[in-house]
Amino acid sequence: MHDPFVGSERETVAPRQPSFRMSMGQLGMLLFLASLTMVFGATLIAYAITRANSPLWRDTDMPGLPLGLIATTVVMVAQAWAMDRALRAIRKNQQRQFTRALWIALGLGVVFVLGQAMNWYEMQQRALSVEVKTLYLFTFYMLTGVHALHIVGGLVPLGIVIAKARRRDYSSSRHEGVRFCVQYWHFLGVVWLVLLAALIIAT
After folding, report:
1. What are the C-alpha distances in Å from 93 to residues 127, 166, 167?
2. Is 33 exposed, middle or buried (0-12, 13-18, 19+ CB in 10 A)?
3. Highest mean pLDDT: which range of 44-48, 171-175, 183-187
4. How far is CA 71 from CA 43, 66, 78, 138, 147, in A?
5. How many CB atoms lie under 10 A from the CB of residue 175?
6. Which terminus of the chain is less hemmed in, N or C, by CB atoms within 10 Å?
7. By the 8 A CB rule, do 57 and 134 touch?
8. Position with higher pLDDT, 127 vs 78
9. What is the C-alpha separation between 37 and 188, in angstroms, rounded?
10. Domains plus CATH for the chain?
């Protein structure tokens, strides 16, 4: 039987392009966040083990969680809103609103750290009169302190993004660094809610 394709040119079909693409920068960011998840996860596991193995966790004379944690949580939520606002602004090339939102986010990050410092001071002052010492206070400082260190660390890339924003280095088609910064701060916001829930449940 005669093959109609014999002696004729076959149609060349281009290879199908993948529908999902990820830049090397995005992949690196995801790996970085995964490593941070392991750090915070290990911290929570250590907290749970310490809590479970402590015959006396919190005596009636020991201070409860400071109410200032509510305020810092509100600040963390507001910071996430400011970061989202900045990302939406740069996607629309609204440079002035973009820079303003970044400054607000930076200020709220600083306020969060200062608020946590006030919470630590309050806990320390209220614990001075307690004679019985347990790991309750130490673990509180450990959980909130590890998170606060990452907040302080996040202020550095946020400051770099602000500096570049003032030079108009970002636009609607070129703002990957902004997106990474937003992802990092949103990650810290979610982690804070998880840590706060763990503190409330254990206390």
Report:
1. 51, 13, 14
2. middle
3. 183-187
4. 23, 10, 11, 22, 16
5. 23
6. N
7. yes
8. 78
9. 10
10. 68-202 (1.20.120.80)
